[in-house]
Amino acid sequence: MRHIDSWSAFVSFWQTMQHEQQRHLLVLPECSATYELFLPVLAEQCSLPAIGINLAQQVLGPEANYIKPNQAKQMLGLNRGLLVYRAVEEFNVSAFSALCGTLVGGSAALLIIPAGGAWQQTPDQQERDFGWQEKQQTGAFKIWWQSMWQANQGVVYVASEAQFEACDLPLADAKLGQAVAKSKQLNQEQNHLLDSILSMATGANQVIWATGPRGRGKSFAVDAALTLLQAQGYRCLITASANHCSRLMAAHSASYYAVDSLLADASLNADVLVVEEASSMPLALLEKLLQRFAKLVLVATVDGYEGTGQGLSLKLPGVLARLGLVWQRIELQQPLRWHKGDYLEHLIEQSFLPRQLASLPLPLKYAKLQVRIVKAADLLAKPDLLAQAYALLALAHYQTTPQDLRLLLDYPDLTLHLLIDQLTEQLCGLVCVMHEGQFEPQLAQQVARGNRRVKGQLLPQILAQQAGIASFAETSILRVQRIAVHPLLQGQGLGSLMLQRLKQWAQARQVDYLGASFAAEPGVIKFWCKA
Fold first, then answer.
1. How far apart are the first and last CA of the chain?
2. For residue 51, which phi and psi values (nearest 5 degrees)?
3. pTM metric for this prediction
4. Which pLDDT tens digit goes with each residue over 293-325?
5. What is the maximum span of the chain, computed from C-alpha positions, in angstroms?
6. C-alpha distance from residue 353 to each of 54, 332, 500 (Å)
7. Using CA atoms, how far apart are residues 200 and 26, in angstroms rounded to an integer?
8. CA dihedral sign of residues 278, 283, 287, 289
9. Could you count the other beta carbons within 10 Å of the beta carbon of residue 356?
10. What whole-number distance in Å separates Cα of residue 330 and Cα of residue 333?
């Protein structure tokens, strides 16, 4: 991480950044000059609008988008020249990661934090939601992420001294919009996807599975194909999970329909159906669409900010084979808004996106398996094991986001039960357990009546409200938030073994209930019925 203490040093850095078309993370300790001098000067240098999160003043100009973290999805697909996130009171890592995907080459993400090291010392809104109180020790996420900054050349700390010296920047070369101009033309990978869709529409039934990281222009290429097909009289429809519908209606020329409408109305036919963000859709729904329509394009982000596609990559080929469908996978790797080797993309990938699981030496000697019970923060000293745990949890749920990593590191009432091969120290499986319940009687009564809702307390609230018995909320409960087994070891009873060990552990501590909340999918129901 580079430290900049003077305005002249920052000007030199900024000009180099523009020349190289690299994207950086700028960390700003908050001071009066941040809003009065520094941000207005930077905004003047941007030929594209900026995005400001949690900003009380419109210091980025009238064209900027001033939003809250929960509005981040509205910005996806746009091209922006600056992202400013005020993270003094809260920091939603999923929103931050997603919005970094809107930044073009030569731009920057700015993170405003409290001065004097107070960011990791004071609980923010997320930590308070997790159960931390003021003046208590906070979670480990901020400490862990700041350690990631130190070895990353794309992170720049701009001291308050440099901010107070801010004045007009010398005009930089007009390169900020070049990456955007290039993105308006389809590249070779996008043209291959477009041609494949056109060929499918006029040929035999099949499924095209378009994958790749964020910002590769998958949706742009798909929409170009749909525009050509509709001009020739083909009927094209688009669907997605509910949380993506507003963005898709704006991004595509074809008609959008909700999944339940497509499945309920037999008269809704399509020559081509596009399923956007397929990785964030339950596999059972996806399978119904595959049975309902003959020609589909599945668009899936492999490492996304709204849901990881790694689980889909493991499960979808088996579903397609079982249904006897002809399919091809087309992968896009060329970024559109920035260049390969981009500093900011590398930081986001290394920090927040699940990595590929390590291979396991087989066959496994089950006598050498050991369950280790840890707090996620304990894994900070073992970053490789933390990365493997996060990757395994991502495979266990189709909507794993970077914010789940923060919960993993910060939630005080969460423990991980790791199944470790003692010979290789490889992670074979894990159970993520939430400690819930033990409400005070008055709070339990309020919850049972529906007058109060306590975050992170799923089972006590369901039991108290649905059964109408407040005392349920006063009991101690362990909830299995996620359970996962390494893909190479699934179907061998390891999941049941981990639950058996967890039950023994809970009984030894006189826990009243052990429970779970899970999707009503056939495979999942079968597992829990056996367990």
1. 48
2. -120, 130
3. 0.85
4. 999 999 988 765 544 445 677 788 989 999 999
5. 69
6. 24, 18, 31
7. 45
8. negative
9. 10
10. 10
Instruction: Look at residues 207, 226, 219 and name the one whose alpha carbon lies nearest to residue 291.
Output: 207
Instruction: Tell me, rounded to whole angstroms, the distance of Cα 216 from its chain centroid.
Output: 17
Whether residue 309 contacts residue 317, with contact meaning beta carbons closer than 8 Å, is answered with: no
Pairwise CA distance, residues 331 & 27, whole Å: 34
- Residues 159-203: pLDDT tens digits? 999 999 998 776 555 444 444 444 468 999 999 999 999 999 999
3-state secondary structure of 152: coil
Q: Distance between CA 220 and CA 399 in Å, rounded?
A: 23
The single-letter code of the amino acid at 409 is L
CB-count exposure of residue 4 (10 Å: 0-12, 13-18, 19+) = buried
Partners of 301 in the beta sheet?
Answer: 212
473 by Cβ neighbours in 10 Å (0-12 / 13-18 / 19+) ranks as buried
For residues 495 and 485, the answer to whether their CB atoms sit within 8 Å is: yes
- Cα-Cα-Cα-Cα torsion 290, 294, 300, 302, nearest 10 degrees, comes to 70
Q: CB-side exposure of 499: number of CA atoms within 13 Å?
A: 19
- Which structure tokens are listed for 318? 């088996």
Residue owning tokens 């992202």:
83
How many other CB atoms sit within 10 Å of the CB of residue 203?
Answer: 9
Kindly state the DSSP code that residue 38 receives in the 8-state scheme: I
Find out whether 49 and 18 touch, Cβ atoms under 8 Å: no
List the structure tokens of 21. Answer: 């078309």
Closest-CA residue to 350 (of 384, 374, 306): 384
